[in-house]
Amino acid sequence: MLLFYKFYKLLHLFQECIAEKKDWRQCQQEVKEFRGWLGLVTGFTLGVLSATAWRYRGFWRGGAKALPKGNKSRSSARDYKMVLVVRNDLGMGKGKIAAQCCHATLGCYRIASTVAPTMVEEWEVAGQPKIVLRLDTAGEEGLYALLREARTKGVAGTVVRDAGHTQVERGTATVAGLGPCDTTTLDQITGHLKLL
């Protein structure tokens, strides 16, 4: 508050000098002091606005609100995850698997953002946990069976089909993404699968 009071006083002195001398160039000392305090007040104000905007960063775009406080505990938020199921029979390299998992994650996120935005918000607050599992049965039918089961339980999901530029044939189903959803429901669907 003292900062703004000092700024106001200097502004008033600057205005009086200009009114008295009719030329701002003759008020150089007041201009220098005013500039310094103007920079300080502007920096302080922008800092406060920036901190406020960061705190409520999701408010304007309809995303996650400020981090939960009070009764809303973080332990409840940890009960959400996304599961990525990779076909093990294709022999994809690590980089290819990573790229396909990224495609699945984005696909699930887009779908879940429209059908279950509250669940997505909880998942984001929890740190967006993702589990990567392997599907040892050959063929893409296993991925679609998981997707069908997920949809019957109301879980968002998608199957990624490769463009065929590198390691697998065009149109090959490579990864199924399920969630984000509560851990219990996803464990009912994918609990029998092993980690990749």
Automatic annotation (TrEMBL):
CDD domains: PTH2. Pfam families: PTH2. Gene3D superfamilies: Bit1. Its EC number is 3.1.1.29. SUPFAM superfamilies: Peptidyl-tRNA hydrolase II. Keywords: Hydrolase. One of its GO terms (molecular function) is peptidyl-tRNA hydrolase activity. It comes from the Eukaryota. The keyword Transmembrane helix does not apply. It catalyses: an N-acyl-L-alpha-aminoacyl-tRNA + H2O = an N-acyl-L-amino acid + a tRNA + H(+). PANTHER family: PEPTIDYL-TRNA HYDROLASE 2 (PTHR12649), PEPTIDYL-TRNA HYDROLASE 2, MITOCHONDRIAL (PTHR12649:SF11). Belongs to the PTH2 family. This is peptidyl-tRNA hydrolase.
